[in-house]
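Board notes, transcribed. Complex of a protein with iron/sulfur cluster.
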Amino acid sequence: MTETWNWRIAARCRVADADTLFTRGRVQREARQFCTACPVRTECLAHALDHQIDIGVWGGMTERQRRALLKQRPQVASWTELLQSARQAYYAALADAAASRDGDASAAGCSVVESSAVENRAAENRAAESTAPTCGAQDAASSTGS
Ligand code: SF4
C-alpha cells in the first residue's frame, strides 16, 4: 500500500454526503459506520495514523480510537507499511487456503484416476493373458504328445 496511487479517488466520502464524518464526540461512533462500505478504508486509516490526523472519522475509526491506537503502538513507524503487510499476509493466507482446498480436490481426483488406471491395467492384463499366444515350447510339447 504505497502512496503511489491516489486512494482518495475511490473514497466513498468523496462522492457521498460525508458531513457526519467530521462531527465531534460520541456522534462519531455512529458516523464511522459510513466507512464500512468504503473500498479504501485501510489506506485512509493508514494515512490518518501516519499523519496523526486527530479530527474526524478516518478509516472507520473515531478520533478517540485512533489516539488510543497510536498510544498503544508508539513503535509503529509506518502504519501504511504495517497495514500493507497485514493485508498481504491475509491474502497470502487466503491463497494458501484456496490452494490447499484445490490440492485436496485434485488429490482426490488423482486417486480416482489412479484407481481407475489400476483397474484398467488389471483388465488389460486379464485380457492379455486370455489371448496370449502359446509359446513355442508348448507347441512343441503338444505336437510330440508329451
Ligand atoms: S474510510 Fe476514509 S475515505 Fe473511506 S469513507 Fe471513511 S473517511 Fe472517507
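The pocket of iron/sulfur cluster is lined by residues 11-13, 18, 21, 34-35, 38, 40-41, 44, 57-60 (CB under 6 Å). The helical segments are 12-15, 27-31, 41-50, 63-72, 79-131, 136-144.
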